[in-house]
Write a structure and sequence with these properties.
Length: 80
């Protein structure tokens, strides 16, 4: 079973914290390009605030991005 994890930056964690304390209805998201089906989707953060769980709308392939320090600051990802 394919499983992919990535870390996002400390800066992003701060952004998430700010968004959670401020506007509760506005959830953080990452832009993810599923190369398998050439589909771009927004992946919203898990209610726990620990990870982003995305799924390809066409083939149901799943992807998980764990929120942590020291990772890439990119907000858009490509999944192949
Ligand atoms: Zn797909």
């Amino acid at each position: 079973m394919l499983h992919r994890s990535a870390q996002v930056s400390e800066k992003l964690s701060e952004m998430i914290a700010m968004s959670q304390s401020g506007q509760s209805e506005k959830r953080s998201f990452l832009g993810v390009m599923f190369e398998c089906c050439k589909v771009y989707v927004r992946v919203y953060i898990d209610p726990s605030g620990e990870a982003y769980n995305g799924r390809c709308p066409r083939c149901s392939k799943t992807v998980r991005f764990v929120v942590g320090e020291g990772g890439s600051g990119s907000r858009t990802w490509r999944v192949s």
